[in-house]
Design a protein that fits this description.
The chain has 234 residues and is of the alpha/beta class. The protein has seven helices and 13 strands. The strands form three sheets. Strands 1, 4, 5, 6, 8, 9, 10, 11 and 12 form a nine-stranded mixed beta sheet that branches. A two-stranded antiparallel ribbon has the order 2-3. The radius of gyration is 17 Å and the shape is globular. 44% of the residues are buried. The model has no long low-confidence stretch (mean pLDDT 93).
Length: 234
Amino acid sequence: MRHAMIFAAGLGERMRPLTDRTPKPLLEAGGKRLIEWHLEKLAAIDVRYVVINTSHLAAQFPDALGDGSRWGLRIRYAYEGPTPLETGGGMLNALPLLGPEPFLVISADVWTDADFALLPAEPRGVGHLLMVNNPPHHIHGDFALDTQGMIHDDNSAPRLTYSGIGVFRRELLDHWHDVVPDAGAEHSPPRFKLRPLFERAMARGQLTGSHYQGAWTDVGTPQRLQELDERLSR
């Protein structure tokens, strides 16, 4: 994979007051900004082009990260305006910058020691999700993962949590308006979540996954950020 996208446009409301003046991806843990951990890992697997979507305090990202050359990357910024476009709208907005091949997507506000090189460069379907054990704040999980590596929205099976990390083909967004028909009418550019597109892909047998059982943290609150900082600083 040569292209990746990092979701960094969130408002960070649960992280306030830390995010009143600093975007959550630029907060530090273990002596590095959260987003820098991802940039280092992307460079290590020979990703070369990274799109970062921005909204809240957007000007701070190029000031902090520049053009990516310090990591051997080329960073491009996809500004979404003062209101984030959600995950689906954000990916759609960034798609012209992502090239024709499958691309890696990472939520900037998670931390993991997972090796991104183990993710498939060519998903069997339109996407591959990295799943993790359910954290205490999300005990019911998101989706089920069967023994064939297929993702299902099945309440009768044990569920895992989507890590915020996955590999996707552009085709995931094909005919997006059929799945979220009101998004374009209410917002321009369109604002919508990825989950309806995941559900369509699951129904078609086009969404695969793998279960990672190593370290992973959803850095969603000041307490979790502090806990992660303490762990990484030991």
